[in-house]
Design brief:
- With about 425 residues, this protein is of the alpha/beta class.
- It has one domain.
- About 35% of the residues lie in helices and about 15% in strands.
- The protein contains 14 helices and 12 strands.
- The longest helix is centred in the N-terminal third of the chain and has 33 residues.
């Protein structure tokens, strides 16, 4: 259960919140899943204290409110496709503990929601104190104000909390991972027994997410079939933590030319009856529109379920056609199983990032130094790195290059994705000079 991780959360401030809401480990090998997570190293309290003092002079900024905001009744007139506003607002209240009790559907017992949210309240507050309030001011100091407001986050399924902590002013965030968004409609039909079981599982996975600063592919994949799918539940928790509210949700497919086709109720029902499921089904890709309560600006999170391997990208060019509609983006990745080191299987995505990104933040699973140099980028590093954890496509050449890059670097007071093999948090900035 999530309660067990509170004492361990103190560790996050020193060793870092790997979460990126990478919600564990966002492994993205073509149709493979990440292996078991490594044992987290204990934080050194003196190091944590010194590291926090190092950023004590960071400029003040607005940070997420612990008390969940009340979501206004917002219409989404003019949008194409079926809108699942009632459903996403129910998920916001029931799973994320945001919004108003009026969002609780009649099939759900309010006492179950109250008990779930009471269990999460202290954990939200602790995560905010130990990670958001530490990481956000630090990143604010190193992120240029001119970074594009469009963010592309490969291997980033479920990690809206990390995306908004990194790019709090982003207007459009696209996360891509193997996991599907899932069917949000189930929240209006779930019974109390199943809901209680799923909320307990969600608390457990959120606890691991808060502790590790990233989400595991396995967790998200399991929860994609629940009444409140993980790719929807985790962003709802993120909105509550960041003081925002959902506006609506809709599903889409991507046409050959890269344009979105917004699915209607009839199209979804026909696809379900035809047995279409997974990344070929109607619930693979979703758009969640959200805003801050007193701000008229509506922002967008789009999740795309897609295998980013070279083989699949070549076979299904519609995905690159969609990406190519963006001329310049901000980017991020973390806990990505070192897939961007893999020349044979993930170089197409990597090359696209290098030709469309002006500023990218990652752990050492991001773009390796040899590739950054090839495309004329420079890399700034923060934190400490000795050697990678053995996830995914690690190779000694890139590992040694990163080790050399981090020589003499000061400790980082939080985790951002994977730590190194000795538990050190670290950040890599890949930028144009």
């Amino acid at each position: 259960m999530i309660f067990a991780f509170r004492s361990a959360l103190i560790f996050c401030a020193a060793a870092g919140f790997a979460m990126a809401c990478e919600v564990g480990c966002k492994s993205h090998r073509s149709d493979q899943r990440e292996g078991s997570a490594s044992t987290d190293a204990s934080a050194d309290s003196t190091e944590a204290k010194n590291a926090k003092e190092a950023i004590a002079d960071a400029p003040e900024q607005a940070t997420p409110q612990v008390t969940p905001p009340v979501a206004p009744q917002i219409t989404s007139e003019g949008l194409e496709g079926a809108l699942y506003t009632k459903e996403v607002q129910a998920a916001f209240r029931v799973a994320g503990c945001g919004g108003d009790d009026a969002f609780i559907p009649p099939n759900i017992d309010k006492e179950i929601v109250d008990a779930h949210c009471a269990a999460l309240e202290a954990d939200y507050a602790e995560f905010k104190k130990d990670w958001l309030d530490v990481a956000m001011p630090f990143i604010e100091k190193i992120r240029p104000p001119s970074t594009p407001s469009v963010v592309v986050y490969p291997f980033g399924g479920g990690d809206l909390v990390g995306a908004l902590a990194t790019y709090p002013n982003a207007n459009e965030i696209t996360t891509i991972s193997l996991e599907i968004a899932g069917d949000v409609r189930g929240i209006l039909k779930v019974d109390s027994t199943r809901l209680s079981r799923e909320l307990a599982k969600l608390r457990d996975h959120l606890g691991k997410l808060f502790l590790k600063a990233h989400s595991r592919t396995l967790n998200l994949d399991i929860e994609s079939h629940g009444a409140i799918p993980g790719e929807i539940a985790f962003p709802m928790a993120a909105l509550a933590l960041h003081g925002a509210v959902p506006v609506t949700l809709r599903y889409f497919t991507i046409d050959d030319d890269g344009a979105f086709h917004w699915l209607t109720d009839d199209e979804i029902e026909q696809a379900v009856k035809a047995g279409k499921s997974g990344r070929a089904g109607p619930f693979a890709n979703a758009e969640i529109r959200f805003k801050e309560p007193n701000d008229a600006n509506v922002r967008v999170l789009r999740h795309i379920a897609f295998d980013l391997s070279n083989k699949n990208v070549t076979k299904k060019p519609f995905f690159l056609n969609y990406l190519n509609k963006h001329t310049e983006v901000s980017a991020m990745t973390k806990a990505a199983s070192h897939l961007l080191w893999d020349d044979e299987n993930f170089s197409i995505l990597r090359d696209w990032l290098m030709t469309h990104t002006s500023w990218m933040i990652s752990d050492t699973t991001g773009v390796p130094p040899r590739i950054a140099k090839k495309y004329g980028f420079v890399q700034d590093v923060y934190g400490q790195f000795e050697w990678p954890e053995p996830f995914g496509t690690v190779n000694n050449h890139d590992a040694a290059d990163f080790r050399d890059l981090f020589k003499g670097s000061d400790p980082l007071p939080f985790r951002y994705g994977y730590p190194d093999n000795n538990g050190h948090g670290h950040i890599v900035i890949t930028r144009k000079p």
